[in-house]
Amino acid sequence: MDDMTLGDLLRQRGVSRRTFLKYCTALASLMALPSGMGEAIARALERARRPSVIWLSFQECTGCTESLSRSATPTVEELILNAISLDYHHTLQAASGTAAEAARENAMQEAFGHYLLIVDGSIPTADPGYSTIAGVSNVAMLAETAKGAAAVVAVGSCASFGGLPAAEPNPTGAVAVSELVKDRPVVNVPGCPPIGVVITGVVAHYLTFGSLPELDALGRPRVFYGETIHDRCYRRTFYDRGLFAESFDDEGARKGWCLYKLGCKGPVTYNACATTKWNAGTSFPIQSGHGCLGCSEPAFWDVGGFYNALSVTTTPLTKPTGIALAAGAVAGAAVAIGNRRKQAATRAGHRRATLADLEKTS
Amino acid sequence: MTSTSIDFLLWVRGPGFAAAVVIFLVGMVWRLIEIFSLGRKPDLSLPRERGGASGMHTVFRRFLFPPGMLRRGPVAYLGGYIFHVGFGIVLLFFIPHIEMARGVVGFGWPGLPTPFVDLVAVITMVTLVVMLVSRLTDPVKRFISTFEDYLVWALTVLPLLTGYLAYHHLLLPYRTMLALHILAAELLLVAMPFTKLIHFVTLFPARWFNGDLFGHKGVAS
User: Fold this and answer.
1) SS3 for B192?
2) What is the CATH number of domain B4-37+66-217?
3) What is the least distance, in Å, from the CA of B132 to any CA of chain A?
4) Which residues in chain B have Cβ-Cβ distances shorter than 8 Å to A313?
5) How much is the pTM?
6) What are the domain boundaries of chain A?
7) Which range (A3-17, A151-165, A239-253) has the least confidence?
8) How many CB atoms lie within 10 A of CB A329?
9) DSSP 8-state symbol, A137
10) Which residues of A fall within a CB distance of 8 Å from B102?
């Protein structure tokens, strides 16, 4: 089976060529490639040998794996995941214990310098004991496994930016993969969870072109994270017209108006949800009536409340206001007293001038 | 973490905004107490006319164009009106601004459609540019202009410009531009008590005082 190409495997699993081409064309359009590239992707993917992939899970919830593997119906994304030589994945592998660790070590040795390392979950740095696998701390395992990786894909917001484990006050000292892996290319595929096709899209890009896609300033593939949810949102016209839902059950909400006032983070969130949608293109959060949480952005868990509008301030002002008014009054009174004194001193210093004074010639 | 722009945005929305409000309030209370406590020499003369409502009169009358002045200084009068009203509309009736106010003071008010506010913002910015050009080219205006005049011009135009760029997703990522926009507004807030921008409050007592004084002397103000 190791000699089989991806094309062979997909055919074996009953994926028709039509379905496969549809996937490749959709991927090409998602990645904003010329329409002909769909076929090129298909050709490259079909011929691709099963790349060795090691998937490490650290402080995570398995939601990213779920996003990829638990679609309602088996999708091409899932099959591609199955088709790659997933040599090590806690959740999906059958082996456990020593055998599982041996699988990782074997894969590392056999494909040293060529395997793709996928990581989900953040890495605790406060104490290595917070998260260990087979007695090996997450930091040590990441360092060891990253050494032989051709590239590292940080899947999910935890691996990309620290995620929920890194939320204030970050008790485990959780950090992103990119904080620890400095000498290997790291691609961030954030989202809580990321869209399945985006995860496989990165892998497909790697298989097709032999390189990683172009990244933005946050290490995310531009092709999927190039535009905001807001810019591609079907409710955008309501924002432009100033029509907003005021609560989740008012007339505006029923009419599908913009959710900005209810805390939607669409305007500052770069992701492909509004275009690819979820569950085989069924819907996405805004379509189901809830604002975007901004889950593909750093620190989305700590950006001033999910239900506060984006322009709302995040620090309570009651106390500072009171202090400011008092301080202003004190400063004003002090300056006023100073001015009064100056006036009094000036008055006291006045000399009475007489006619005789004026007639004096100096 | 590689999240400089979100940290920046969080800072301007949180501690930065609180700091700006504190400086603004300290400055306003301090300066107003200072100004009003200066007092005036008691005027022992008899009023030439029954002063009456002359002070109040002037507060409102000064909103009108003095005869002939509209022709002599169209840029100052029309431009002044357009940019003040425009700035007010953008500041008070853009929905995200109202939401921000609701977050701070606990209540909001109806807004205007975004494209309209957008248009007003453009008109306001163009007007401000025209006024700057007039200030630079008119020899008299130029002569009486100080650094502070150019500073408050910049502080006024920056929130409009950054807001416009942020809304249209121009030049920089929206998040960075939004943060810059909020920062620009905070700078305006901070500068308000300590520059001639304080006129947004003092113009009313100043007009009243002038009107009252001239009424006392029996001359038109």
Assistant:
1) helix
2) 1.20.950.20
3) 30
4) 13-14, 17-18, 100, 103-104
5) 0.72
6) 6-225, 227-341
7) A3-17
8) 15
9) E
10) 312
Please report, as a single letter, which amino acid is at residue A10.
L
**Cis peptide before A169, with omega less than 30 degrees from 0?**
yes
Answer whether B3 touches A (CB < 8 Å). Answer: yes
Beta bridge partners of A283: A278
Which one of A312, A318, A339, A342 would you mutate to disrupt binding with B, by most B Cβ within 10 Å of its Cβ? A312
Output the CATH code of domain A227-341: 4.10.480.10
Contact across the interface for B102 and A312, Cβ inside 8 Å: yes
Question: Which chain B residue's Cα is nearest to A228?
Answer: B174
| ipTM associated with this complex | 0.72
Q: A155 has which bridge partners? A: A120, A189
- Residue B61 Cα to chain centre, angstroms: 20
Residues of chain B with confidence (pLDDT) below 50 = 1-3
Contact B174 A268 (CB under 8 A): yes
Q: Which fold has domain A6-225?
A: Rossmann fold (3.40.50)
Q: CA A139, CA A124: separation in Å to the nearest integer?
A: 7
Tell me: pLDDT of A193 over 50: yes
What does the pLDDT look like over B170-206, one tens digit per residue?
888 777 888 899 999 999 999 999 999 999 999 999 9
A304 CB neighbours in chain B (<8 A) are 10, 13-14
